[in-house]
Automatic annotation (TrEMBL), chain A:
SUPFAM superfamilies: PLP-dependent transferases (SSF53383). Residues 2-362 form the Aminotransferase class V domain. Belongs to the class-V pyridoxal-phosphate-dependent aminotransferase family. NifS/IscS subfamily. One of its GO terms (molecular function) is metal ion binding. Its cofactor is pyridoxal 5'-phosphate. This is Aminotransferase V. InterPro entries: Aminotrans_V_dom, Cysteine_dSase, PyrdxlP-dep_Trfase, PyrdxlP-dep_Trfase_major, PyrdxlP-dep_Trfase_small. It comes from Lentibacillus kapialis.
Automatic annotation (TrEMBL), chain B:
It catalyses: [ThiI sulfur-carrier protein]-S-sulfanyl-L-cysteine + a uridine in tRNA + 2 reduced [2Fe-2S]-[ferredoxin] + ATP + H(+) = [ThiI sulfur-carrier protein]-L-cysteine + a 4-thiouridine in tRNA + 2 oxidized [2Fe-2S]-[ferredoxin] + AMP + diphosphate; [ThiS sulfur-carrier protein]-C-terminal Gly-Gly-AMP + S-sulfanyl-L-cysteinyl-[cysteine desulfurase] + AH2 = [ThiS sulfur-carrier protein]-C-terminal-Gly-aminoethanethioate + L-cysteinyl-[cysteine desulfurase] + A + AMP + 2 H(+). One of its GO terms (molecular function) is CCA tRNA nucleotidyltransferase activity. This is Probable tRNA sulfurtransferase. It comes from Lentibacillus kapialis. GO terms for biological process: thiamine biosynthetic process; thiamine diphosphate biosynthetic process; thiazole biosynthetic process; tRNA 4-thiouridine biosynthesis. Residues 60-166 form the THUMP domain.
Length: 379, 400
């Protein structure tokens, strides 16, 4: 099997699975229980939180364990909107956000919030001055992703953070689900108030995630109850999930320097081969994140290519898995200004640290054969 | 591209005459200890400075660790390139683009290797021009730049460094002998230990434990505090003294308002015993003048009578607010405020003598013989060694 759909989800690291299983079996006590067994669970949770904070260079109390990217994005966006609605009702975002941001904002729109969707250039990147100009007195939140999930484009979050710093009354949320371990981001130093991470994109388990909430940032919780997770997310802690996620964070952090270089090398090879291929157009910009390569084959149905590669146990995807069940057109590619024949024919190849040169080689040969075959059929 | 070195400057130490070499060796050793978890890093000494070679480890993570080492004045991330104009240009451009919170910059080229064909002044200009042409939004400010980009062209290579990050200062732990820190579990004593370490002192700790009046969690609290202190030096031995019998005896036999003073005198006697046994030359306490009854000048005078070992009191001139600030900085505050009884908070007399005189105290003490009980307490000392990663730290390592 050649798995090149790592932006949809990744294979859990065996060490992460082991950690989940061990923690579930050994530390099943509720961390809130007063007895010593509960105390042990609490100690483990505290240590997991501390390790996560150390790895992200933030404070322990700024880590909120969640069920993943979608929850993190919803908690950040709705949490700010509901908590601070008396201050203002305006939110700024882009045209290329993940559905968990996009749809959350659409929901708020129905409640009377005003959302500004900023356009992106042909590389999928928002302009910093557009963000600056969109800010009004009643703006309470800017929500912009770090790395785009379909294209790999990197948004200038650091610069936007600088602008956010100049407006102390508004909050800045960054969806970093695709960025962690691929494009370095100094959360604490970049003017970011909220930052979403997901476990299963970094060889952790589904149902695990972290929302970074900067000290002093008030949120209206999505879940009310026993006031776990600094009162921001009630519900008995998913201790095994949290512990396994922190292990995944550590494993990625230990490997990220060489991992990023390695993927960049593979991406370069992909680009060199793809440029040569007739009828293939490269959508991912040159300075994108190292793990995504998005291409279009105008005139060919991407599903057909996916299925033909699938027969050979090579797995890539069309656009993002989260939206691939909906209409044919990639909203992201359309937002970049691409013609319809290009935005309906996109393929996404996404890499992991463990992807090998050999796999890329085999995949490229298979892809070019597949396209050649299709061409003869279509002719 | 990536930062591959950390440049370490050690200021004060460089002045220390004949001791200089041993100071530097100690700093090198302490750095190596601190970076144990980053096995590929290497510490290298050159004239007047030190480098940490990262060999692929994350620069920020390693820098964070270096911030715990006394004797470092400041640090900078550095990129090493060959003495080649294009390579220098590329690396400088990368460093500028990756700097945070920077709008203005300045280039300072230092050409140590005179064989390099371009003179420093010319290089300043061409490099500055190259950076301006290839970036957006930066301007040059030679007087007060946000970022000074230093390019040092040496014979072996060129080093490019950016922001200067302050280190902890002080002297490398291990260059000024050893002290015995009285660690109660409160806010003050760990701060006193930290400040002693700052002057290059290695510490061992002593703790008086009175079960069942003080719980195991109180003892654990002290071990956790000692553990925190290990992050600024090497291992810390904690001498846990079984104190129940002595304490009960003092409070039964001695007048209530003098019991506190006498208790502290006995603690001092035990401390001196530990010092002699472990070849430790001084005792360190978290006392500050006038904070509580035992910390008046009279009290100090009377307590101090029982030992002629020097007693270091690094906090003597500090206000409580300042002490709390340091304890938060070194991360001991949250441990210190855990609500467990310690040996000083049980048996608190209703009105302790704030001005206990030596004569009176000696007179009371002569009425009873503590020798045997002291002997028994010293024999019963349990030594717990904390070495940076004790069981509590390692406890869940198989899971995390």
């Amino acid at each position: 099997m050649i798995y090149l759909d790592n932006s949809a989800t990744t294979k859990p690291d065996p060490a992460v699975l082991e950690s989940f299983q061990q923690t579930s079996g050994r530390f099943f006590a509720n961390p809130s229980s007063l007895h010593p067994f509960g105390g042990e669970s609490e100690k483990l949770l505290t240590k997991a939180k501390k390790q996560a904070a150390d790895l992200l260079h933030v404070q322990d109390e700024e880590i909120v364990f969640t069920s993943g990217g979608t929850e993190g994005n919803n908690l950040a966006i709705k949490g700010i909107a509901l908590e601070h609605q008396t201050r203002g009702n305006h939110i700024i975002t882009t045209d290329v956000e993940h559905p968990s941001v996009d749809e959350a904002l659409k929901g708020l729109e129905q409640l009377g919030f005003e959302i500004t969707y900023l356009p992106v250039d042909e590389n999928g990147v928002v302009s910093v001055s557009d963000v600056k100009n969109a800010i009004k007195d009643k703006t309470i939140l800017i929500s912009i992703m770090h790395v785009n999930n379909e294209l790999g484009s990197i948004q200038p979050v650091q610069e936007i953070g600088e602008i956010a710093k100049e407006h102390p009354k508004l909050f800045f949320h960054v969806d970093n689900v695709q960025g962690f371990g691929k494009v370095p981001l100094k959360i604490a130093e970049s003017g970011i108030d909220l930052c979403t991470l997901s476990g299963h994109k970094i060889h952790g388990l589904k149902g695990t995630g972290i929302l970074y909430v900067k000290q002093g940032t008030a949120l209206f919780p999505l879940f009310h109850g026993g006031n776990q997770e600094q009162n921001l997310r009630s519900g008995t802690e998913n201790l095994a999930g949290a512990v396994s996620l922190v292990r995944a964070l550590r494993l990625i952090s230990e490997r990220k320097c060489e991992g990023i270089e390695h993927m960049r090398g593979l991406q370069r090879q992909l680009r060199e081969r793809l440029i040569e291929m007739e009828g293939v157009e490269i959508n991912t910009p040159e300075d994108a994140a190292p793990h995504i390569m998005n291409v279009s084959v105008p005139g060919m149905k991407p599903e057909v290519i996916i299925h033909m590669l699938g027969v050979q146990e090579i797995y890539i995807s069309t656009k993002s898995a989260c939206s691939s069940k909906q209409s044919d057109e990639s909203k992201i590619l359309a937002a970049c200004g691409h013609e319809k024949d290009r935005s309906v024919s996109a393929l996404r190849i996404s890499l992991a640290y463990d992807t090998t040169e050999e796999e890329i080689h085999v995949f490229m040969n298979a892809l070019s054969e597949t396209i050649d075959q299709l061409k003869t059929i279509l002719e | 591209m990536q930062y591959d070195h950390i440049l370490i400057r050690y200021g004060e130490m460089a002045l220390k005459g004949k001791n200089r070499k041993s100071f530097i060796m100690q700093l090198e050793h302490n750095l190596q200890q601190q970076l144990k978890d980053y096995p590929k890093t290497k510490v290298k000494r050159t004239q007047g400075r030190m480098f940490v070679l990262l060999n692929g480890h994350d620069p920020e993570d390693v820098m964070e660790k270096c911030k715990n080492v006394f004797g470092i004045q400041s640090m900078s991330l550095a990129i090493k390139v060959r003495n080649d104009e294009d390579e220098i240009h590329d690396a400088a451009l990368w460093a500028l683009k990756n700097a945070i919170d920077v709008k203005t910059f300045k280039v300072t080229v230092k050409r140590v290797d005179k064989k390099f064909p371009i003179r420093s002044q010319d290089m300043n200009q061409t490099l500055g021009k190259y950076l301006l042409l290839n970036t957006n939004g930066f301007t040059v400010d030679v007087h007060k730049p946000d970022l000074e980009l230093k390019v040092e062209i040496r014979t072996e290579a060129t080093y490019i460094t950016t922001s200067v990050v302050p280190g902890l200062g002080g002297l490398p732990v291990g260059t000024s002998g050893k002290t015995l820190l009285m660690l109660s579990g409160g806010i003050d004593s760990p701060v006193a230990g930290f400040l002693a370490m700052k002057r290059g002192v290695e510490i061992e700790a002593v703790h008086f434990h009175s079960p069942p009046f003080t719980s195991d969690r109180a003892k654990q609290k002290v071990l956790d505090l000692a553990e925190k202190l290990t992050s600024y030096g090497n291992k810390v031995n904690v001498h846990v003294v079984p104190f129940t019998k002595l304490q009960q005896h003092i409070f039964r036999e001695m007048p209530e308002n003098y019991a506190m003073t006498i208790m502290r005198r006995i603690m001092m006697r035990i401390c001196e015993r530990v010092c002699r046994k472990e070849s430790i030359l001084s005792i360190t306490t978290g006392e500050s003048l006038g904070q509580v009854a035992s910390q008046t000048m009279e009290s100090m005078n009377t307590i101090n009578e029982v030992t002629n070992f020097p007693i270091l009191r690094p906090l003597v001139a500090m206000d409580k607010d300042d002490i709390v600030r340091v304890s938060k900085k070194i991360d001991t505050y949250d441990i210190s405020i855990r609500p467990y009884e310690d040996c000083c908070t049980i048996f608190v007399p209703k009105s302790p003598k704030t001005r206990p005189g030596r004569e009176k105290v000696n007179q009371f003490e002569s009425q009873t013989d503590f020798t045997e009980l002291i002997e028994e307490a010293v024999k019963g000392i349990e030594v717990v060694t904390l070495s940076g990663k004790i069981d509590a730290e390692k406890e869940f390592d198989d899971l995390l």
